[in-house]
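Quick log. Single chain, no ligands specified.
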Amino acid sequence: MKFFARCFFAVLLFQFAFSAVTYKSSDGYRNSQKKVLSGLVNDVLQSVFGASPECPSFPEPLEYSENFASLLKPAFAALESSLAAFFKTSQAPGVALGIVYDQSLIWSQGYGVINPAVANSSAPDADTVFRIGSISKVFVDLLMFQLRDRGLVQLDDPVTKYFPTFQMINMFKDETPITLRQLSSHMAGLPRETPCGVFQGECNFTTDEIMQRLQSTMYILPPALQPVYSNLGFSLLGHLLGEAGDSDYETLVTSNIFEALGMANSGFNYTNDVLARMAYGTDQSITDLGWERPAGQIYSTVADIAKLVSMFNEANMRTGFDSAPRASVSPPVLQQTTVREMLLPAFVNTDGSFGYGHPWEIYLTNGTWLMTKGGLVDSYSTEVGMIPSVKLGFIAFVTLPYHASLPFIYEMIDSFLGPFLAVLQQLTPPAVVPTAAYAYVGSYVLQGIDMQGNATVSVRSLPDNAGFKLHIDNPAVFGSFDLDWDADISMFRFALPD
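-> predicted structure:
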């Protein structure tokens, strides 16, 4: 009960600070005080979270400065030692790794060799080319949201709006047409692979031929029930977006995303120049996925994927106060409100430990969401992982023909996250609680906080401007609670009755 109430009222206070609050005060201060109050409530939130290990929070991200980088040197040294030992147990010919913070690739490292078939081959680095497999699906969803924002598609459009001949065998009673939203989050109930027959892996068919083959293919589940991972779904969505954009999918991704983000070493076609810059495993074949190219054809580098992660880091998932878009990306690939939308789960398991997004595989890790997307194609296992709450991203490219990249992501997180947060906390300026308490005194009403009634937050000053007392009244659910200012530790205490 204590834990739930702590978290509930942290959310209540957060919404109170950043939403339209009806302000009732005899002191004459009105809605202009809302922004000032938000700073106060942020301090309250920090103290509430800090006092409650069951309701975790991280320090606010800060600009990556020379001092920041200097303080992280011991963490980087420990990380490299840990990963060198971990690499020896992986049996991978080569690995390229990177860590992104906010807008910077702050660390990268390669282990092993670029090509095991070449004598004295050097180690891969951030500019070595790898196939990224199903990380390609991130670009399908990016393009979908981009075209949605431009009014060319709607997320709840049925597939048949763009492919009128689309039809599959449906043995379920629910015959609701599947939508773009469901395709983009593996919620359409489609089978994993496109019916390419003996050509599976090189799906050399036209869209018309695929539509004909789908007519004898069955749904696995009704749409919108639970996730079913589907390369078919993302291939279908990619070709659909090409139709909606009056072009083809690969041209749109290249011009609207790769070129916009400066991802010069990313693409779809494996030219001789690309092949000369690639890392290889023991099997050096490169499969063209044909009609399934949207689901897994892209090649890229750690440095290029770091630019993608930086784009997601521009959106503030904590307060909604976003970073200014990079001057080099104008107009932005996605509006920042859309970036936040793309980072929200589309499905969460009943125990809250795992979910699916657009197109993320989401894990509850260290008290927060870890947004990941992995890929596996030929001899390439790849993974990108993001912790949006602290604007951290982790990238792992491995030349092995099975899923071997996610363990590298977790090894980086286990070794680096704790020291990183310690440095971030060290650099965070102490919260300044205003001494002019009278400026905040009043009562504030947030309507419909729990769908069962209003919540009232009353700010009261202590004698001699010694601080504040916040009284929270939510009679429909929790009753009344106080936040008391503790002058000895300069922090709010959130005391709940046993």
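The first strand starts at residue 22 and ends at 24.
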